[in-house]
Amino acid sequence: MKKFVLSLTVLFSLNFMYAQDIMLPAPRKDGGKPLMEVLSNRRSLREISDTPLSEQTLSDLLWAAAGVNRPDGRRTAPTAMNMQEIDIYVYTAEAVYLYLPQEHILKHLLTGDFRAETVRQPFAQQAPVLLLYVANYERMKRLDQQGKDFYGATDTGFISQNVYLFCAQEGLNTVVLGMIDRDAAKNRLGFDGKAQLGQPVGYLKHH
After folding, report:
1. Which domains, ranges and CATH numbers included, belong to the chain?
2. What is the reported pTM?
């Protein structure tokens, strides 16, 4: 009985720990490799280990993707009419978070591993970080559906390329995924919009 109570205590403690928002450390904005070298090293690579990323690396990754880089709140990736309509959901083995660029935090949404229901490729289901880019229709009300589809796809591409370049600099592997279960993601997360692309990120998997 004592072991059972202890197990429950540990379980609840873990759930409590995983259910917290993550205050990311300040991103490192200096240094890095020359741009031309990074462009030369950009690759789509599927060999990704399940080794977790550090909070600092995750912080730098998300800031590079679509973080705030000016006092007026504008981002590292452009968006049409500065709508800033692309939300980045961050899947890990423990939980799903929403990246909030203005506060530079990860807002906890769900506890649990939902990678396998969102992406079909086994290597992506094991990646320590899976980014899901979602066009938020609440910020695109001025557009018709054709405009939402066009700009949602275009603006996602800018963010995805930022991630590619960051990974090329940091020695991380990544690949953009069009084969995702958009309905499963929408049903699970309940957003008003469209899941555009997935992008797993992680270290090289050694065979």
Report:
1. 22-202 (3.40.109.10)
2. 0.89
